Amino acid sequence: MIAVVGASAAGLTAAQTLRREGYTGPLTVIGDEQHMPYDRPPLSKQVLSGVWEPSKVSLPSTVEDVDWKLGVRAVGLDVGGRRLALSTGDSLDYDKLVVATGVSPRRLPSSLAGVHTLRTLDDALAFKEELAAARSVVIVGAGFMGSEVAAVASSLGADVTVVDPLAAPMIRQFGPWLGDLVAKLHADHGVRMRLGVGVSGLVGSGRVSAVELADGTSLPADVVLVAIGSVPNTSWLAGSGLSLTDGVDCDSLCRAAPNVVACGDVASWTHPVQGRRIRVEHRMNATEQGMAAARTLLGKGSPYSPIPYFWTDQYDVKIQAYGTFPVDAVPSVAAGDVGTGRFAAVYVADGRVTGVVGWNLPRETRQLRARIGEPA
Amino acid sequence: MKVVVDQDKCVGAGQCVLLAPDVFDQRDEDGVVVLLQEFPPAELHDDVRQAARVCPALAIELDEQ
Q: Does B28 lie at the interface with A, CB-CB under 8 angstroms?
């Protein structure tokens, strides 16, 4: 029996790939949510804005002959004994295992109502309901999620403030040059950015009423979204013997141990070209690594060497990125013009192109992808 | 094989164009997928299947009947 722990994009793709590649034995997929697999990127955009009905995020999950165990968590793993412990109290013996348990949002210490995180469909629907009635919205964290939600919330008519201790939004992904352009985009739409200052606490009795900043400012808030990154879901693997330095540590074939592979947000693997272990929390990686990990389990694996792709939509701007963006990489415009709001920039580090980011210029951005890895 | 694309779901990644440029293209203005061949010839089927699988929005549907 092959067990897949995790029923989101990576786990689903691994299950589909196992069947497509000829595995005909028993297959069990374990998912901690009650929902069948669904797609997460639209949650902070189309679902939150109401443009899509929630049912539209369903992933096509027809896989032949799968035992779906939904609403069930894996709570322990015995690698040597090839046995999973489940939240139901049962145990499950497997021959081979796919770990695809994803990540969970980091939280702020608070039990106040009105304070949200956004990872699951249920999170999105709960937050959407409160957003509809909110006048003042504070978003903690100016990464992809925080920036996307700021755009949606302001378009719904709320008064929106984004707080981040760093100097620009999305600076971790793309550095200060693009971050400043994103900050200006939000300013043009009336969203306030409180940058360079952290949050010292959430205030309220029963329900949140304000967010206090480290500089003493108090921001009134009917609803707060905490979007300060994620942590890999590996606590259930404590004591399993798997290496858990950054998620589930894997070799270049996505192997974490004999007969155990990992994929998606939870997996860090040795990228054969970059020569170091990386972990990628992007939608396309969930698919591609799910395929790669499944092939490895069937003895058909090869080193997993993707060029990452990811994107974000904010207002009428579509930002797309291929490759990687090390902190020391230097951007330069290679197509279009920043002033016209349509451009693409290549990022160069150590004399080579590492990544391409496009701002409302999809075709040219895709074409520039071919330069990744080449001398600048 | 019949190819159907959902332009509403498409996120403009262009992965389909990279894999099967004779079957898919992108609109200039927003990068949304444009279907060039609804019934691609057999020699392109593997590339089209791969494009459908890796599409980050799963916006490509194949009818293999």
A: yes
SS3 content of chain B, % helix, strand, coil (to 5): 30, 20, 50
Among A283, A287, A363, beta carbon nearest to B31: A363
Query: Could you tell me which of A274, A240, A270 has the C-alpha nearest to residue A257?
Result: A240
- ipTM of this predicted complex? 0.93
Shortest Cα–Cα distance, A203 to chain B (Å): 38
Query: Given this model, what pLDDT does residue B65 score?
Result: 80
Say what the pTM is.
0.96
Which residues of chain A approach chain B closer than 8 Å at the C-beta?
13, 39, 41, 56, 59-60, 283-284, 287-288, 291, 309, 311, 313, 318, 320, 360, 362-363, 365-366, 369
CA angle A281, A283, A284 (to 5 degrees): 110
Residue A199: the pLDDT is: 97
Strand order in A248-250's β-sheet?
Answer: A248-250, A267-271, A276-279
Average pLDDT value for residue range B28-36: 94
Token pair 């299947």 is at which residue?
B49
Q: Which CATH architecture has domain A2-104+230-297?
A: 3-Layer(bba) Sandwich (3.50)
Predicted local distance difference test score (pLDDT) of residue A283: 96
CB contact under 8 A, B14 and A366: yes
pLDDT tens per residue, range A6-44: 999 999 999 999 999 999 999 999 999 999 999 999 999
Of the candidate CATH numbers 3.30.390.30, 1.20.1050.40, 3.40.50.2300, 2.60.120.10, the domain formed by A316-371 belongs to: 3.30.390.30
| pLDDT < 50: residue spans in chain A | none
Residue of A53, A281, A284 best to disrupt the B interface, most CBs of B under 10 A:
A284
Residue A274, pLDDT score:
84
Name the token pair of A112.
């106040």
Q: What is the pLDDT of residue A289?
A: 98
Q: Which residues of B touch A283 (CB under 8 A)?
A: 56
A280/A265 Cα distance (integer angstroms): 6
Output the pLDDT for position A350: 94
**CB of B14 within 8 Å of any CB in chain A?**
yes
Compute the nearest-CA separation of A316 from chain B (Å): 10
